[in-house]
Design brief:
GO biological process, one term (chain C): transmembrane transport
Oligomer: heterotrimer
Organism (chain C): Veillonella ratti
Helix content of chain C: 55-70%
InterPro entries (chain C): BP-dependent_transpt_permease, MetI-like, MetI-like_sf, OppC_N
Radius of gyration of chain A: 25 Å
Strand content of chain C: under 5%
Structural class of chain C: mainly alpha
CATH architecture of chain C: Orthogonal Bundle
Number of strands of chain C: 0
Strand order of the largest sheet of chain A: 7-8-9-3-10-11
Largest sheet of chain A: 6 strands, mixed
Family (chain C): Belongs to the binding-protein-dependent transport system permease family.
Strand content of chain A: 15-25%
Helix content of chain A: 25-40%
Subcellular location (chain C): Cell membrane
């Protein structure tokens, strides 16, 4: 059985401006020992999705619906607050973005760690051994040297990287099977980030945990994850292995994101146009279509379904603005498409000419024949 | 001619500690930074948080009084607060957080108009109508409409707010704009829009930028010259191409490797030992010695000078 | 043709969406919208408005005045002629309560005005200049805080005679302190805001930064403090009048009326009921409204609670 099974999660926030659906139809699966990354812009619903996995969303202002929600062999679909609390302390733990706010500033590191250990023991009914030794062992595990001295220190006496290590140690205190990390390194410097990522990666191996890591930083995802999901406006738009998604992105949003990162060879950056969507008034059809350079007419009208791990009408289109085509071929293709568009604007005129690429039909009904002439 | 120069610019902050604030300690935010900028050039300033890159920008602009050293702006020595007006004519600033850097109770037009209203030199001769026309022109240049000028900041997305911030800096017609982490608070898809806008304005007006950022890839893309800072001091400075292709300082090498371009199979690292020392510490040797993989006994004894090596300046005993 | 339409480019192929293409963001609810959602706050506002109206037009609705004595009609229970009954001197209680509302509300609003005039400027200046100025100015506030209100009211009474003027002066000394503290702490926070730094980086002079950039952004806390200071002032006045340090006869504030009602509580309890209810209802009104405002003006309060 999977460590996490989430099917068609929907989360609605009730605000003064009205109800707003921030997560729409998100399904996730995670096996033990696997690392899943969720990327997306701020407000795309990635944090909310993960908070729903831990029952952290405030009940009075949100409605959470899912067809299935199983975390660590427990069906949590109809969980109340008490059941969630039990699960949070034992099977699932979270590492937050800001290590300073995740620690209580007036309690020493040791006190906080020991509290977590005691809570776990209380839940599982095990008899406690030497809690202090266990706390020290936890600190050692997260790479903190001289643990006995550190246990007596307070959060403000530690550096940012050290604090994040303590937060991770506290998460480990409950012996979780699933670790959730919400932007775990965003508040840290790049040199410290490498240390923390390395630590997390090792812990996944040694503790055989599952890890879901949220980040807006594609590099973190590429370094850490086996699989990744790209979210836009509350939906997963593409999902798959990291190699597949970074090597051969299919969704125009992901393609645009990858082009937004300058590399050695970049001479002119290609921006994704437009502004992020307003969740309160999403456009008709595909949420990304107003910014999509490859938008088609259907995109403005109908929401594509997530099929084959991709939520995009291009998968159904016969003539694809194919990213692998280049040079003269691409120009021909573009010219053809432009003529098609112009013809369509003039309504009903047939277009002469050859499409440069006629890809195999992907099952869509389409009366463009093999030569690409459109019959009216 | 250089738009601005700093010579041995030093900035120390005093923090008071203890119950009655009786113990004061020095935070060495800038330790003898000498940099300059030519017209139309983009200077990238990179480093980790607390390395002094933002402090440098703010001290150069006169937002923080300098502790010692010299600042020369457009050929004039900046000595007293009275020279501030001269600095502001030539240098303006774009801030990091587009949500916090605009007054929420002023419309976009009011925000843009303010620099023209308060300045005592330069634009004094402009009539009210001229000023408004100028605001409209700037709005258009940064990609906003006249109608949007009547709106309040909260009605815009982060990227649009940063455009307003750039417009506000632009309206004084400075020769140099200090961009203090202008894109780090924005979504990736919007970052490129802002960088493209900056490039476009530079091509049109020959503005120089000081581009402060921790995103090394973006800095490489936009700047011609780069200065790497660590603990308040410049450790390597030179033409972007030379520094990126053949970094000499071990810290620069680590930073560049850590910011390696995205690839499907990426390993984590290199991992530098430890963390940046506290700026409260009084370090006698090389500031990077505690983390340097190539450290020698000499590094711990004396601070290496910034010297010319292979077409760039570097502060390292081993080079 | 219709079927293929679906897969034709939406825009000319190869062009990206307009970089500045506008997303129409649905306007977020402002403070007033949020206030409207809060029924209790609206009820509070309704009470306040009713009280104000009553204080203004109330006395004209009755043929009596607050000083008219008619011993033949003393201690009458509420009736059609005397809605709230009469007191031991045969004065109409309705008119006296409504007239008392004038005095009580006047006291409240004077306190608010003092809050605004002295507190905001004092706190603003202290916070803005910081350092020694701040320490000196706020120490003065702390000292004033340390003196019990009753003490200097009684001292004032020795110098002046008991009456409305001395109450105003007493409130004047006491009621700007909280405001000064709140505005000062808010200004200190605002000093670190990037837009204030941005204003400095554009060469905006200090006074303009304070009045144009900082104080307008303190409006929320200022309004809240004011609405909560008004009922406090009204209550203080009632309390001072009750113990005999307030307005003098035949003028009547709610406190005076309550004190008179207490004397005959055994035989004529209705004499206490009317002024006590008036005080209680007004206090509730202001408190509901103030709490509602506090929630509505909280910038983080976009989510319904």
């Amino acid at each position: 059985m999977s460590l996490v099974t989430m099917e068609n999660l929907r989360v609605t926030f009730h605000t003064f401006a009205g109800d707003v659906e921030v997560v729409r139809d998100v399904s996730l699966k995670l096996e033990a020992g696997e690392v899943l990354g969720i990327v997306g812009e701020s407000g795309c619903g990635k944090s909310v999705t993960v908070q729903a996995l831990m029952g952290l969303l405030p009940r009075d202002i949100t409605t959470v619906k899912a067809e299935a929600l199983q975390v660590a062999d427990t069906d949590c679909k109809d969980f109340g607050e008490a059941s969630w609390r039990h699960l949070r302390g034992s099977s699932v733990a979270m590492v937050f973005q800001d290590p300073m706010t995740a620690l209580n500033p007036i309690l020493s590191v040791g006190t906080q760690l020991i509290e977590s250990i005691k809570l776990r023991a209380k839940r599982s009914g095990e008899t406690l051994g030497d809690v202090k030794a266990e706390a020290a062992a936890l600190l050692q595990k997260v790479g903190i040297s001289d643990p006995d001295r550190r246990l007596a220190q307070y959060p403000h006496e530690l550096s940012g990287g050290m604090r994040q290590r303590v937060v991770i140690a506290m998460a480990l205190a409950g012996k979780p099977r699933l670790l959730l990390a919400d932007e775990p390194t965003t508040a840290l410097d790049v040199t410290t980030e490498a240390q923390i990522l390395l630590l997390l990666k090792e812990l996944i191996k040694t503790e055989h945990m599952g890890l879901i890591i949220i980040s807006h930083n594609l590099r973190v995802i590429a370094q850490m994850c086996d699989r990744m999901a790209v979210m836009y406006a509350g939906q997963i738009v593409e999902e798959g292995t990291v190699e597949a998604l970074l090597g051969n992105p299919r969704h125009p949003y992901l393609q645009g994101l990858l082009q937004s990162l300058p590399t050695m060879a970049t001479t002119k950056l290609q921006a994704i146009g437009g502004q992020p969507p307003d969740l309160y008034s999403l456009p008709m059809g595909c949420s990304f279509h107003p910014r999509c350079p490859k938008a088609m007419r259907i995109c403005a009208r109908e929401m594509p379904r997530l099929e084959n791990n991709l939520r995009c009408w291009l998968a159904k289109a016969k003539i694809t603005p194919c990213p692998t085509v280049s040079g003269e071929l691409l120009e021909k293709c573009d010219a053809y498409c432009n003529r098609l568009a112009a013809a369509n604007d003039a309504e009903g005129q047939s277009v002469e000419g050859e499409p440069a690429t006629a890809t195999a039909p992907l099952g869509a009904t389409n009366n463009t024949n093999a030569e690409g002439t459109v019959k009216s | 001619m250089n738009i601005w120069e700093t010579h041995d610019l030093t900035k120390h902050f005093t923090v008071r500690r203890g119950f009655l604030k009786q113990n004061s300690q020095l935070v060495r935010a800038l330790e003898g930074v000498s940099l300059s900028q030519a017209e139309g050039e983009t200077l990238g300033l990179v480093g980790e948080s607390g390395c002094g890159k933002s402090t440098f920008g703010r001290t150069l602009m006169g937002l923080y009084p300098k502790t010692s050293g010299r600042i020369v702006v457009a050929g004039r020595e900046i000595e007293s607060p009275a020279d501030q007006e001269h600095v502001l004519q030539h240098i303006q600033m774009v801030f990091q957080d587009p949500y916090a850097s605009l007054n929420p109770r002023m419309t976009v037009r009011q925000s843009l108009l303010e620099p023209l209203t308060v300045r005592t030199t330069g634009h004094v001769s402009l009539s009210e109508a001229d000023k408004l026309a100028k605001v409209d022109a700037v709005l258009e240049q940064v990609g906003l409409t006249k109608a949007q000028g009547e709106r309040y900041p909260h009605e815009f997305s982060g990227g649009q707010r940063q455009r307003i911030g750039i417009g506000r800096a632009l309206i004084s017609e400075p020769q140099c704009i200090i961009c203090d982490e202008p894109i780090s608070a924005l979504d990736v898809s919007i970052q490129v829009q802002i960088v493209s806008l900056l490039e476009h304005l530079q091509a049109e007006r020959r503005i120089s930028y000081v581009f402060i950022s921790h995103d090394l890839n973006m800095v490489r893309y936009i700047s011609q010259r780069i200065a790497v800072m660590y603990l308040g001091a410049v450790v390597e400075e030179g033409p972007t191409k030379a520094v990126y292709e053949n970094p000499l300082h071990p810290y620069t090498q680590a930073l560049i490797q850590l910011n390696a371009p995205l690839a499907p199979h990426m390993s984590i690292g290199p991992v530098l030992a430890g963390e940046v020392p506290s700026p409260l510490a009084n370090i006698t040797g090389c500031p990077f010695a505690s983390r340097c993989p190539e450290v020698t006994s000499q590094c711990k004894e004396a601070k290496p000078p910034l010297v010319m090596r292979e077409g760039r300046k570097v502060a390292c005993w081993r080079r | 043709m219709k079927l293929t339409d679906d897969f034709l480019p939406l825009r000319a192929h190869g062009t990206t969406a307009d970089v500045t293409a506008e997303v129409v963001y649905r306007p977020r609810p402002n403070a007033w919208h949020r206030l409207k959602e809060n029924k209790l706050a609206l009820f509070g506002l309704f009470i306040i408005i009713c009280m104000l109206l009553l204080a203004i037009v109330g006395p004209w609705l009755s043929p009596y005045t607050y000083a008219d004595q008619n011993l033949a009609e003393a201690n009458q229970a509420p009736s059609a002629a005397h809605w709230f009954g009469t007191d031991t001197l045969g004065r109409d209680l309705y008119v006296r309560v409504v007239y008392g509302a004038r005095i009580s509300l006047a006291v409240g609003f004077v306190a608010a005005a003092i809050n605004l005039a002295i507190g905001v400027i004092y706190g603003g200046v202290a916070g803005f200049f910081g350092g020694k100025v701040d320490r000196l100015m706020m120490s003065f506030v702390d000292i004033l805080y340390g003196i019990p209100l009753l003490l200097y009211v009684i001292l004032l009474m020795v110098v002046l005679s008991p009456g409305l003027t001395s109450i105003f002066i007493a409130l004047g000394i006491a009621y700007w302190l909280t405001m000064a503290r709140i505005v000062r702490s808010r200004i200190v926070t605002l000093k670190n805001e990037e837009y204030v730094l941005a204003a400095r980086s554009m060469g905006v002079p200090a006074s303009r930064i304070l009045f144009r950039h900082m104080l307008p952004n303190c409006v929320g806390p200022i309004i809240i403090t004011m609405t909560l200071a008004i009922p406090e002032a009204i209550f203080t006045e009632a309390f001072l009048s009750f113990i005999g340090l307030g307005v003098s006869a035949p003028m009547a504030s709610w406190g005076v009326l309550a004190a008179e009602g207490i004397n005959s509580i055994r035989s004529y309890p209705f004499q206490l009921v009317a002024p006590a209810l008036a005080i209680a209802i007004t206090m509730l009104g202001f408190t509901f409204f103030g709490d509602g405002l506090r929630n509505a003006l909280d910038p983080k309060g976009e989510v319904k609670r």
